Amino acid sequence: MAGNLPRLQNIKLDPFLESYAPSYIENRKKDFVTLQGLLNKKKFKQIEKLSHKIAGSAGTYGFQNLSLIGNQLEDAAHNRSFEKIEVFLHAGIEYLDGMKFQKAQ
Description:
Radius of gyration: 13 Å
Helix content: 55-70%
Largest sheet: 2 strands, parallel
Number of domains: 1
Number of strands: 2
CATH superfamily: HPT domain
Structural class: mainly alpha
Shape: elongated
């Protein structure tokens, strides 16, 4: 399972998104805190919905790896797999904490 997780990388942003990316990432970090709380309460349906939102919005912003993590979280929540959700939550937090941006040229 761990082999399917995206690796940290430098992200080249479209100039239009440069000003939005930092607040977007901070908001997703808050979402992952929320997801952890939902997991502690075993609120799988709510995890599924929030993960779907993360997957969609990340793809829109060009953060394909974060979108993949969101999709994996959504699937794990749909299957009520507590252990997989924990793995993907950790991967998402690690990914967000390790993001570095470069200006597109």
